[in-house]
What we know:
By secondary structure, this protein is mostly helical. About 75% of the residues lie in helices and about 0% in strands.
Amino acid sequence: xxxxxxxxxxxxxxxxxxxxxxxxxxxxxxxxxxxxxxxxxxxxxxxxxxxxxxxxxxxxxxxxxxxxxxxxxxxxxxxxxxxxxxxxxxxxxxxxxxxxxxxxxxxxxxxxxxxxxxxxxxxxxxxxxxxxxxxxxxxxxxxxxxxxxxxxxxxxxxxxxxxxxxxxxxxxxxxxxxxxxxxxxxxx
Length: 188
């Protein structure tokens, strides 16, 4: 939620020509775009040009009353830059698209839809995990996020052996799955 509010503040700042917001968007995203373009037959100047075009696109969209950013700014900027760069490579003859035109490739909107869906799924998973309660939340985080083994987890959580910890992890995972799909199906 905090991320979404921050992103909306940055968009408002962009529309209002707030140099701090523009600098933040630039600092947070230019490196990623530069790496993509340098790794795909481009130069630093190409990266600057493409990034500038993407910023203009974002600015124009953000000015529109109907525009709702449903993904991270990073995702949007990257998708626009990727599309612009592939189009430019095709125009320069350094990139051959298998199909007749670039329009037949995956448009940015489809990339954004995939990212938006993934972000929404992650948000549901985070809410589900937070509502799971202890010790399940900590146990699943220890295993999946911190990559701890069952022996280490059994000692940490006071289970008699690794098999008991494994059984408890399975039960917690089933509870998490139930919570996730209860919220996921509401969204459909």
